[in-house]
Design a protein that fits this description.
Elements lengths: L3 E4 L3 H10 L10 E3 L20 E7 L13 E6 L14 H4 L3 E7 L5 E8 L3 H9 L6 E6 L5 E7 L2
Antiparallel strand pairs: 1-8, 2-3, 3-4, 5-6, 5-7, 7-8
Organism: Fodinibius halophilus
Pfam families: DUF1203
Protein name: DUF1203 domain-containing protein
């Protein structure tokens, strides 16, 4: 078993977005259709959207408290409907692994960026292992390599 655990956005966040159509920053949201295949992965099930799939774009911060300079807010997508949170938490999501480039950011216990790597999607497990080899890294955020959008959190399994 890998020594990491994949953490998608909380199901409660997706439920709130779907039922209120407002994010925590007061933005009114709308359902749109994906314009192409393998686009805009859902941050709950961690699967790609495909052409014509219904999706919701909203602002999100992966930090519990937004009182730190590193606690950035950015756009993410969820499917309008999906089966629920990603279940294979010890396996990197195949649809996201298929991306050409991903950014792996290692954060310390103070939630500050400690290290970062740009990696090919097919080499993501090596990058995760490399970042976690630094004992100062408490957790990882994986982001889109080109746009920088948040994809998921990864925690150590000890």
């Amino acid at each position: 078993m890998p020594d990491f655990k994949i953490i998608p956005i909380p199901a409660s966040v997706a439920h709130h977005i779907r039922t209120t159509m407002q994010d925590r920053y007061g933005h009114s949201l709308e359902v749109t259709q994906s314009e192409e295949d393998h686009n805009n992965p859902c941050r709950l099930c961690l699967e790609d959207t495909h052409k014509g799939d219904e999706q919701i774009l909203f602002s999100y911060s992966p930090f519990a408290e937004n009182d730190d300079p590193y606690a950035e807010v950015g756009p993410i997508y969820i499917h309008k409907e999906c089966a629920g949170p990603y279940q294979e938490v010890h396996t990197f999501p195949p649809d996201i692994r298929a991306r050409p480039w991903l950014t792996v950011r290692g954060y310390n216990a103070d939630h500050a960026i400690h290290t970062a790597q740009l990696t090919k999607g097919e080499e993501i497990e090596l990058a995760i292992g490399d970042v976690f080899s630094d004992p100062e890294v408490s957790y990882i955020h994986v982001r889109h390599g080109t746009y920088g959008c948040y994809l998921m959190r990864i925690e150590r399994v000890n």
